[in-house]
Structure formats: structure tokens, C-alpha cells
Amino acid sequence: MEFLNKTVLIVGGASGMGLLAGKCFAKEGANIVLADINAEGLDAAVLEVREITENVIGQVTDATKYDQVVACRDKAVETFGSIDVLIPCAGGAERRILGMQEKNFFEQPISAIEFSIHMNLMSVLYFEHAVMQQMVKQQGGVIIHMGSITGAEGSAGNIGYATAKSALMTGIVKSLAQAGAPYGIRACCIAPGPVLTRPGMAGMKTLLGYAAEPQEIVDMMLFLASERGRSVTGTTFLMDGGRNVMRNKE
Ligand SMILES: NC(=O)c1ccc[n+]([C@@H]2O[C@H](COP(=O)([O-])OP(=O)(O)OC[C@H]3O[C@@H](n4cnc5c(N)ncnc54)[C@H](O)[C@@H]3O)[C@@H](O)[C@H]2O)c1
């Protein structure tokens, strides 16, 4: 019960690692706020977490709209009184999400790059801007970003995703650590390689020869959010099975 009376707000909480994080933090006693753009998926996710705790709410939120982000922050505080951990987990590569062919950056419509920057970068900054105001009032909190190996490698066909993830992994996590430290707020980032939230990820090579299970990434979230991670701020943990140091990635 490491997170008893703590509130964890997870953006993109209707599926994948976000939903799993909701369940795992709930098992440790936390109040859970799941935010997601997918209303149907969110309803189902809230029911799953409710099997663990009564202290869960879902808030339909398009994280790329600042007014909806503020409304989500306000709902969380109104319901549970604080936001102790923020995990902006919504994200994804534009080529997959928009169903684009294997095209280079310059062959794609500019709207695709704009979409990706809004979804992967601005949505995170919006939540951080809104929630840090609450964390400053509380004099404490932890923000756990989701980076990606793509933020270290780049991607000719997912430039918005690569740009956003590299920003989260360096400029943003470092800046928020500096902005937050006087108020007891920490900022950390986990940058996974392939994770089996989708079977297709098994095809992405790693030095160790396997993709991570979602639970491994969520275990790192639990560590970073807890007192055991109290000295970690302003830094990124690559959890990529060694892909970053592979010579031949084909
Ligand atoms: N799965 C991997 O292999 C992998 C690898 C590296 C990094 N990551 C990162 O980890 C995070 C989680 O990945 P996942 O595979 O568990 O994700 P997922 O695709 O299962 O879930 C993403 C969730 O975000 C929600 N979402 C999308 N747009 C939104 C918006 N505008 N507002 C609110 N919610 C929105 C979706 O509805 C979905 O529920 C992402 O940021 C992803 O980039 C994943």
C-alpha cells in the first residue's frame, strides 16, 4: 500500500501501459484518475480498475485541448483533493495512427506532422502546465514521462513522434526538474524500446532479442513514483533491451 491516499492521474489510461499503470497503482492503494479521448474504452477501463478500488474516476479528455486538460485537473482535485503523480502516457507514432504508407517526412501532408506534435508533445506540456500548478500548492508531486527509443534514434517517417519523444527525454524532463525542485516536484522519463502492448512490437529488434512486457515498464513507474525513487529527477531511463547500442538494427 505504497500509494495510500495518493492520487495518480494517467493520461491515455484507457489502454496499454496507461491502463496497466492504473491497475497497479490501485493495488498499492492509490486513488486513480484515468483520462482518455476514447470514451467507450475509458468506461471499460474504469470498470476494470473498479474491481481493485472504489476510488477511481474516468474523465473523457482530448489532451490536445488545453481547456479540457484544465477541466480534467479540476475534476481530479475536486474528487480526491490532490494530484500526487502525473503520467502523461497518451502517444503514438503518426504513421501507425494515421494509417500512412511508408513515406518520408517530406512526402507526408503537413497536417500529419502537426497532428503528431500536438498529440505527442503539446498534450504532455498542457497537462504538465495545468497539474504543476496544483503540485506547487501541495508542495510535492512526481511527473513520469513516456519517451521512446525513437526519440534517441529518429525516424524518417515519424518525425513528429521522434521530435516529441526526444524533447520529453531531454529538454522537457530537465526543465521540469529545474522548475519543480523548489516545490518538491520531481520529473522523470522512461524511454522504452518495443513493448508488447501490441503483438506487432515483437518484430522490432533489440540486443537482448526480446520486446519488454508492459509490466516491466509499469514496475519502473511504480519505483520512480515512490519514496524509493526520491533522488531521481531530470533524467531518462532507456528500457530498450539494448537497442540503442545495437550495430545492426535491420
Ligand atoms: N508500445 C510500445 O512499444 C511503446 C514503445 C515506446 C514508447 N511507447 C509510449 O508509451 C506510451 C503508451 O504506449 P501504449 O502502447 O501503452 O499506448 P496505447 O496506444 O495502448 O494507448 C494510448 C492511449 O492514448 C489515448 N489517446 C490518444 N490520443 C489521445 C488524446 N488526444 N487525448 C487523450 N488520450 C489520447 C488512446 O485512446 C489510448 O487509450 C505512449 O506514449 C507511447 O508512445 C510505447
Keywords:
Rossmann fold; 7-stranded parallel sheet
* Fourth CATH level, the homologous superfamily: NAD(P)-binding Rossmann-like Domain
Bound molecules: nicotinamide-adenine-dinucleotide
Count helical runs: 8
Count of separate structural domains: 1
* Rough outline: globular
Look up the CATH topology: Rossmann fold
Mean pLDDT: 97
- Oligomer state equals single chain
Summarize the structure.
The chain is an alpha/beta fold and 250 residues long. The protein has helices at 16-27, 39-50, 66-80, 94-97, 110-138, 149-153, 159-180, 214-225; strands at residues 7-11, 31-36, 56-60, 85-88, 141-146, 185-192, 235-239. Helix 3 runs parallel beside helix 5.
Description of the molecule:
- With 250 residues, this protein is α/β, with parallel strands linked by helices.
- It has a single domain, classed as Rossmann fold.
- It contains 8 helices and 7 strands, in the order E-H-E-H-E-H-E-H-H-E-H-H-E-H-E.
- The chain has helices at 16-27, 39-50, 66-80, 94-97, 110-138, 149-153, 159-180, 214-225; strands at residues 7-11, 31-36, 56-60, 85-88, 141-146, 185-192, 235-239.
- A 7-stranded parallel beta sheet has the order 3-2-1-4-5-6-7, sandwiched between helices.
- Strand 1 (7-11), helix 1 (16-27) and strand 2 (31-36) form a beta-alpha-beta unit.
- The mean pLDDT is 97.
- The structure holds nicotinamide-adenine-dinucleotide.
- Nicotinamide-adenine-dinucleotide (NAD) binds at residues 11-12, 14-18, 36-38, 41, 61-64, 89-92, 119, 123, 146, 148, 192, 194-195, 197, 201.
